[in-house]
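User: Quick one: structure for sequence A, then sequence B.

Assistant: Sequence A:
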Amino acid sequence: MKIRKYITSVAFLSVCIFGSCTGPKDTKAPIPVIFDTDVGNDIDDVLAMQMLFNYEKAGEIDLLGITISKSNPYSIEYIDGYCRLNGKGNIPLGYAYNGANPEDGGYLRQTLDTIIEGNKILHPQRSIKSNLPEGYKLLRKLLASQQDSSVIFIAVGPETNLARLLKSEADEYSELDGKSLVAQKVKMLSVMGGLYGNEFDFPEWNLIQDLDAAQTVFKEWPTAVVASGWELGNKLLYPHQSILNDFPESYKHPLCVSYKIYDKMPYDRQTWDLTSVLYAIEPEANHFGLSPQGTITLDSIGHSLFTPSENGKHRYLTIQGEKNIQTTLGAIVRQVTGKDK
């Protein structure tokens, strides 16, 4: 019996050595992600949010929480309803009280009020009456619970919550001030904001909505920052055919309904916020080029100025040529729709 057991063990070992062993495989741990968004100002925020939910469904990220930088109550209801649509009804939400853009926007209330086949298409349970935490307080709580240098931070609107985080003091969640907490816990900030290169020259919209906050973030954020400029998303147009054809029962899917409300169909919308999400989660996939290291500063009216520097913590995304545009756009569409994943 001992000889037989020995032979069996050797045979099993040989199988494993030569690659046929079906033991457990190593799996990458999901990336912890925080998303800061101004849903309601543009439709690209909704598509970017759907990308993140699909990444999480695929096991690639752990979406820790969402902070809202648009200071409009309907943004809370919309995001809560959209999270519930994706099975994330308990995700922590934070809100920028007394922040930028109090206007309703072009699709928040309209989508929330939409009734199809006798039912509303979004079913929020949280609202301004829910007393959500201040965005920066939620950020402190989320960061304090994570491993050092682990969190990927994605910001795609006014940077109110980020600046308030940097200026925050020690509290019940951490003895560190905001800047020190970010330095300890965040790996990278992927931010949609600014304008880079020589093709255009104007203050970019996200940055000038809360210019003081944006100046604070680009000056004081202590980790690596990768910016996606206006010119990048402007080259990558999300195809309206995907909105019409790639979602089950698209006539009542909230993303598709909001897209149609936002502007008259058919239209292909710029993918500004989506580029920051794609790079943040797939930085090694070569969807984009990267500038040299350097420093981004904002002038008094919001122009973004890049100065190369070997010690700089800032870079910005680039894209070259029609072939690169098409392959990158294809990756974006696949991630928004969750197909071929």
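Sequence B:
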Amino acid sequence: MTEETSAVTQPARARIGESELAGIAERFELGKVRHVGFIAEGMMNPNWRLETDRGGFALKQIVDVTLPKARRSLSVLGILSAEGLPVCAPRLVGTDPVAEIDGRGYCVLEWAEGAHRSGTSLDQGEAHGLGVLVGRIHMALASPRAGLDRPEEASRAKVTTPEAALEEADRFLDVITALDEDAPFDVDARRRLRRRKVLIDAHAGRRPADEVPVGPAGWTHGDLQPLNLLWRAGEVTAVLDWDRLAVRPYAEEVVRTAQVQFTTDGGRLDLHNVSAFVAGYRTIIAISDEALGDAVQRLWWKRMTDFWQLQWHYDKADHGPDALWVSGERLLEWWSERLDEVQDAFQAS
């Protein structure tokens, strides 16, 4: 896992009280804590690296999901670890992977060595291997040993109307107009919002026709992006952050993972790595061309009608995802011109 900011530069969310830390060490039987380092990566849950008498651990304050959901996900990790998958097994307080201290929930996991890598730095063999791993994860989560309820209904996926998307774009344009003074981000956001409106109008006829995705669904990780994977010597050493564990169409996770892994800095998809990744997945789980093509179209339209980075920036006053707004708009422009080509790359494996 990646570390860590100095005490001088730590934001408020990085700080943890000595008494709280002592309570965590006692509950999880970590021994004496000799070093604490805040892990700066990530936007949701605060994380720290602990060096203790009993080894290295990752400490996480659970703020982005409910504690019952966190307990479910953490319990699954122990089973996946026993199955030989690269996940970090949680420490237990008795049988509970979560400790509640002063009204806050914490979990502790074994420390994993490795480095984050951008998906575009992978060669095609590594991309293929990542696809194999995702297939193995899906198979393990579907096993009765995982202890998860079997999906009973076909999943549904909201399809935002062009009208609703245009209304949201206009809302942000109004927010920017009302500002006393434009910052560079505001100027850029205004220009890109106007371009987004043009794209929505031009491609509205290609949006998904209904809310029922094609293909099978099952339990999935939900956020297989570079910061949630650790690599060493061409292999994934740990899959991190299981807070988004949920039932989804398998094709949705395959396509989303490929998109977040293999988008270049210039806002294009590395389609060779995409095909290698999907080919790896298909060695484990059979998935149809129809399901993959449908998932590509659905994710493209979701990106077309989603303004989550602006919601963070203007509605939450949180500028953490600002850079993702720019890269996302570049990808959307490129993707909209090549939707058929992108679908073919996913189906070519």
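DSSP finds eleven helices and nine strands in the chain. The longest strand covers residues 55-62.

User: Thanks, that's what I needed.
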